[in-house]
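Data availability (excerpt). The following record was deposited with the supplementary files.
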Amino acid sequence: MFRLTPVLVVQFLIASLPTLCTAQGMAPMHQTSCEILVRVTFEDDRAAGNQIRVELRNDSEVPVGETFTDSEGRASFHVAIAGQYRIIASGTPIQGNSSESVRVEDMDKSRTVFLRVKPKSDVTSATTKSNVAPVTSAAELRIPSDAKKAFRKGMEAWEHNDFPKAAEQFEKAVSIYPQYDTAFNNLGVMYYQMNLTEKARAAFERSVALNDRNADADRNLARILIHDGNFSRAEELLKKSLMVEPLNPATLTLMCVAEIETGDEDGALTTARKVHALPHEGYSVVHYVAGQALERKGQPQTATMEYETYLRESPNGAEAGQVRTALTRLTASSRPNAQ
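Predicted structure:
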C-alpha cells in the first residue's frame, strides 16, 4: 500500500520558508544580501496560518516582492539593497491590512519581523463556508508576561533554525504556564526537528489535550500517527484541524494520505482535487496518491494523467522514482499483446 515516507513527514512538519527575489526597479545604492524573515501572528502570538498575502515595499512605496505565508504563518524575502522597507499583510483570513517597517543595514544577514494581525470571523471560500475563526483557548488569554517573553524568544531562535535554543525557550514558557497549548505545539516541532520523536509526540498530545481546537497541534500529531500507521486516529485529528482551517493544504494532503491508506479511494480523490485547486507547492504527493486511487478503481488513463501532473510539478520529488515506475507499468499494460 501507499506509505508516507519519513522524508515527507519532516517536509510536512516544517514547511520551507517561501522566498521571492526582489525586483530591482531603481539604481542600487548600498549593496547587501539580507533575508527578511516574516512571522505573521494573531495578537495572542498564535501563528496566523497560510494563504495570507505578504507584500514587501521599499521606502518609495514601490512593491519589490510578494508571497504568501506557509502553514506556520511564515514568509521571507531576500533583499540586495540596504534601506527602509515596509511589510504588508492582507487577505481573506484576516481583517484589513497590517504593516510593519524594517530597516536593513549594509552588514545585515537577516532580520526578523513579527507582524500582528486580527482574524476575520466570517471567512467564505468557494467550497466551504465557516464562521469559525482561528481558536484561542481561554487558558491562553491568561498567559503570564514571562511565558510570552520566553515564547517570543523561542520563535526568534526558530526563525534562525536554532532548534535547541528554541526548544529551551518553549520549555521555559510551558514551565511558567503549563496550560500554554501553542508553546507545547511549537516545542513538539522543535523536538521533531532534533529527531526526538517520542518527546515530540508527548508535546503534541499535551497541546491537543489543552485545546481541542488547536489546528496546528492536531495536524502535527496526525503526521506522527500516519508515520506510525495509526491512520484512523490521524483522520480524526485531521478532521478537527480542518474544522478550524478548512483549506489548509498541508492538512488536506495528510488527509489524502490517510484516506488512501484506509481504503477510501473516493475520499482520497476528492481531497486531492481540493489540494490541486489551492496554491500547493510542496504538496505534489497528492497527485501520486490520486494516481494510486485511480489505478485501484480501474482507471489507468486518468491515473496516468495524475502521475504526469506529479512529474510536471515535482520532477525531483521524493516519489518521482515510484511515479516513473508506475507510468512504465501502465504504458506496458496498455500495449496489445504480441502475437
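Summary of structural features: The beta strands are 19-21, 31-42, 53-58, 63-68, 74-81, 83-90, 98-104, 110-117.
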